[in-house]
Amino acid sequence: MNFGEINSKFDNLQIEGHFISKKFDKKNFQSSYNLNLMNNKKIIIPQQTHSANVKFSDLPGSIPRCDGVFTSNPELVCSLKVADCMPIYFAHKSKIIFGLVHAGWRGLTSGILKNTGKLLKNLKYELKNFDIVIGPSIQDCCFEIADDIKDHFSEQYLQIKTNGKYRVNIQNIAVDFLIKIGFSKQAIHIIDDCTFCMEEFYYSFRRDNGTQDRMVALIRYKNHNN
Ligand SMILES: [Zn+2]
To answer: How far apart are CA 105 and CA 129, in angstroms?
Structure first.
C-alpha cells in the first residue's frame, strides 16, 4: 500500500487518513504531524477491547472500553491500533466529521458496524455521504477459524479447507453490512494488503504468535495547524 492510497478514496480533500506500518518512519511522521503519538493533547485514543462500542468525542484523550471514535473537531486526530483486525476509516464527503472503527471478527459479530451507523444517524448525518476505506488487515488467504466459532458467520463468507477449518472473508462481511445499513457501495474501498502474508510491512497478531506490536491508523482534518 502506498500512503496516498487511503486519501485518494476520500472526496473530502481536507480529511487525511494514515496508516503507520512496520516500515514507516515514526519519528519523521511525528515531527511532520507535530505530535507525539504516545502523549498528545490532540489525539483521541480508544482503549480497545474488541467491543462493539463506538463513541463521538470533541475532546482529546483516552476513551475506555471503546473500539471506534468519531469527531467533528478539526483540531483532533482519531487513532486506532491494529495487527490483523480491520481499521475502517470514515470520512464525510463534505462536512467535518471523520472517524475510525476497529473491527475484527468479534467486533463485527457483536455489532460494531451497526452501532457506527446508529451513532452517525443520531448525529443527523446521512450514511451515504461517507467515504469508507478498509485498511490493511488479515484477508481470507490467511484468516482461518475452527468449528467452534463458525456459527457466528453466515455460510456465504466461509470456505471449508482440507484441514477441516474455515477461511473467512471479514472484509466482505464488513462491506455487505455497511451497504445493508445505508452506506453507499461506490464509496467503500478495501485495501487488499494481507497483514499476515506481507511480513515485511505489517505486524500480524496471528502470524507473530500474539505479538504486542501494533500498527497505528490515524485520521485527521488537514487544513489545520496540526
Ligand atoms: Zn494472507
So the answer is: 26
